[in-house]
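Q: Could you fold this chain for me?
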Amino acid sequence: MSLATSNNMELSVCSLFYAYCSNELSFVVASSDETMHIKNIKQNKIVAGNILLETKSVAKIQGLQFRGEFILLEDESSRKLYFKEFPYALAMQPKLWKIKVNYFKLTDNRFGFGKKLIWKKT
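A: Sure. Below is the predicted structure, expressed as structure tokens.
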């Protein structure tokens, strides 16, 4: 995923590996406190990002945009989910975070050119 963060003065974009927690509509990611995006998040926890499948065919374009709140991971089930997806990361004992999503926009050209599905948390 690509993740965009900001503070009052700067914007930052980074790439992160993620595990998706469907029952909580959230992403679990690992990142260090020393990164620019985590420094931004400590000032402004609202983030935006995207996930896309790479293709050269316009008819196969699929992409997901999202917005949410970036918080420190506290639950064990999400932690297990991340390490199930990335077992090699367990040796590094990374700091884990959760992105609680409140907005999704899916573009999927397999359903028609420019077809978009939008979900907003109520």
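A (continued): The two ends are 25 Å apart (CA to CA).
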